[in-house]
């Protein structure tokens, strides 16, 4: 299928040409680990990567492949590799780009798992992360040196709801020929295609808004096909790979050498492949993504405005509000909607925050994000409880801070629930 169609059409059709054998309309679930070979010659060709085809579902699976093609089309990329979770995708990309002694320059405003991966886990393997301020692109430039292999940020940071100046950061990274990796989980291709702004690799957790029902865990990395890996900075992409009889990734795969590395090295050696059934669930989610995203964003903006006008609310973080410091960047990069996540402070600090959470009736008290249900969490007493007071402040987690993932229910029901819970919090 050609990728000239609109996003809404690609989300329903891209990557699946109807099963020739069964003529199944719906994408089949290929619940299989292995595949028949025609002959020993064909098997040898597959293993030598001389011929494209399925060998083993840790590397490729036809159902997962439909999802990879569909998301690559949506994001405007050339190639995509699916993983067992968003974190597996992010860790896979980091490990494919960095060796011991290399470094990552990342926005400090990150999803919790990514933050601990960069700060603690990769550090133990000799990969250092230097943190920059997503709102000040020059701070990225200050940290880049000749061992920097990846510049990293999220389209909307967590939990601060900051919107980075993407084009400036990309420009700075590309000046040093460093690849730019962007997490598009909270926005999805429906709100922004980071590749259109020069980003080289988009990583995403499919667990969130792509699934939409909180049913399955999965992740994906999409490669733009624009980055030239053959320049000096990435020796693993140009030097012969002894684990593939001297294969040179750049020579064989050109501008999608990273995807090849993710599949034939990361998935081969570390695993973390997506399950076919989960890929099927994500295909289902994708078919309604455009409809849901619109509703999520409308509801979030209305709730943000309602909270801003409420006398028991001390502040609201939502980049769709004119009063928000990230409003201008959000209008530039996210004109179709500013996402479903907002934060607010409630008068009365930690105690009022806890009371609010205990008083909501419609909203669910969970740490998940971005499914169709409205969800609330009080980070100071849950997700960020272990941090010191200063660390909490640095992470934007004030004692009265409540994070909301706004669902697709009727807005009046959401507003009524918040109104009664805020009242209850002040008693
Ligand atoms: C949830 C999330 C992840 C991790 O995804 P999993 O599928 O839970 O591993 C990464 N980045 C962001 C922004 C997320 O919200």
TrEMBL record:
Key word Repeat present: no
Spans through the membrane: none
GO molecular function: cysteine synthase activity; methionine gamma-lyase activity; O-acetylhomoserine aminocarboxypropyltransferase activity; pyridoxal phosphate binding
Protein name (record): Methionine gamma-lyase
N6-(pyridoxal phosphate)lysine: modified positions: 208
Record EC number: 4.4.1.11
Keyword annotations: Lyase, Pyridoxal phosphate, Transferase
Swiss-Prot/TrEMBL GO biological process terms: cysteine biosynthetic process from serine; L-homocysteine biosynthetic process; transsulfuration
Cofactor(s) of this protein: pyridoxal 5'-phosphate
Listed GO CC annotations: cytoplasm
Organism superkingdom: Bacteria
């Amino acid at each position: 299928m050609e990728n000239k169609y609109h996003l809404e059409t690609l989300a329903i059709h891209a990557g699946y040409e109807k099963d020739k054998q069964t003529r199944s309309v719906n994408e089949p679930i290929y619940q299989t680990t292995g595949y028949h070979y025609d002959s020993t010659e064909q098997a040898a060709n597959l293993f030598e990567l001389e011929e494209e085809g399925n060998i083993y579902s840790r590397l490729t699976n036809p159902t997962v492949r439909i999802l990879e093609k569909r998301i690559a089309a949506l994001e405007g990329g050339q190639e995509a590799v699916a993983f067992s979770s968003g974190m597996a995708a992010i860790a896979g990309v980091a490990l494919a780009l960095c060796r011991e002694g290399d470094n990552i320059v990342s926005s400090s405003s990150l999803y919790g798992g990514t933050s601990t991966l960069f700060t603690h886990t990769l550090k133990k393997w000799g990969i250092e992360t230097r943190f920059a301020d997503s709102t000040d692109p020059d701070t990225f430039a200050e940290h880049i040196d000749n061992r920097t292999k990846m510049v990293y940020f999220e389209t909307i940071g967590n939990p601060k709801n900051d919107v980075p100046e993407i084009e400036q950061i990309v420009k700075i990274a590309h000046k040093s020929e460093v690849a730019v990796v962007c997490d598009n989980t909270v926005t999805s291709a429906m709100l922004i295609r980071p590749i259109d702004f020069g980003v080289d690799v988009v990583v995403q957790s499919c667990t969130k808004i792509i699934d939409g029902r909180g049913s399955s865990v999965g992740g994906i990395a999409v490669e733009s096909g624009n980055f030239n890996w053959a320049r000096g900075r990435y020796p693993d992409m140009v030097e012969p790979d002894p684990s593939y009889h001297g294969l040179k990734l750049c020579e064989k795969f050109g501008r999608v050498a990273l995807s090849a590395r993710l599949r034939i090295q990361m998935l081969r050696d570390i695993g973390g492949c997506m399950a076919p059934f989960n890929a099927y669930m994500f295909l289902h989610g994708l078919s309604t993504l455009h409809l849901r995203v619109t509703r999520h964003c409308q509801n979030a903006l209305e709730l943000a405005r309602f909270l801003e006008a409420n006398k028991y609310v001390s502040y609201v973080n939502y980049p769709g509000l004119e009063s928000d410091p990230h409003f201008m960047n959000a209008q530039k990069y996210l004109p179709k909607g500013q996402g479903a996540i907002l934060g607010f402070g409630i008068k009365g600090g930690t105690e009022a925050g806890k009371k609010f959470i205990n008083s909501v009736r419609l909203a669910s008290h969970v740490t998940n994000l971005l499914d169709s249900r409205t969800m609330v969490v009080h980070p100071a007493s849950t997700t960020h409880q272990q941090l010191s007071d200063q660390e909490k402040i640095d992470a934007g987690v004030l004692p009265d801070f409540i994070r909301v993932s706004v669902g697709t229910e009727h807005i009046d029901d959401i507003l009524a629930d918040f109104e009664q819970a805020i009242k209850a919090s002040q008693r």
